[in-house]
Amino acid sequence: MGYHHQAISSPKIPSFFLFCFITMFFCSPATAKTYYTLQKGSSLSLKHNESDFLTSPDNSFTCGFYGVGTNGFWLAIWFTHSRDRTVVWMANRDRPVNGLGSRETLTRGGSMVLTDVDGTQVWTPNVNSSLANLAERGELLNSGKLVLLDAQGKYLW
Q1: What's the confidence (pLDDT) of residue 118?
Q2: Cα angle vertex 101, ends 58, 48, to 5°?
Q3: What order do you get walking across the sheet with 137-140 strand by strand?
Q4: Is the separation of the CB atoms in 136 and 149 below 8 Å?
Q5: What CA–CA distance (Å, rounded) separates 56 from 49?
Q6: 35-149 CATH fold
């Protein structure tokens, strides 16, 4: 009694399509992230002229890096749905940061700090010195105000 072996073949996937799928999956550019709160130890970052964002719960306002000139950015709050992104507030009007590697951080120590690409501190909110390091999170309210809150939800700034 002889056994007949039949080769099982897999479906043929053209090499070009396989290459495109692998390239798309592994080489896709990083996209901006949107947050509703900025937790202690986290940052909004600016990479290759693309910013992470903080949005209000009702999505009326957005906070992030807003381009000015060819490679300058303000940390700003604007109306999310306005055609020209109408700015309502900015932290560093007189000193834009660089478009690569700048960040707004709520440090592990509870301070909010805007730093340029070289690590230079450009801006920090004017918080009462006795409360300066108590922030647990930052939020953008439906009113467009950027606030810092302690662990109990009390406004610090």
Answers
A1: 93
A2: 75
A3: 37-39, 137-140, 146-149
A4: yes
A5: 22
A6: Agglutinin, subunit A (2.90.10)
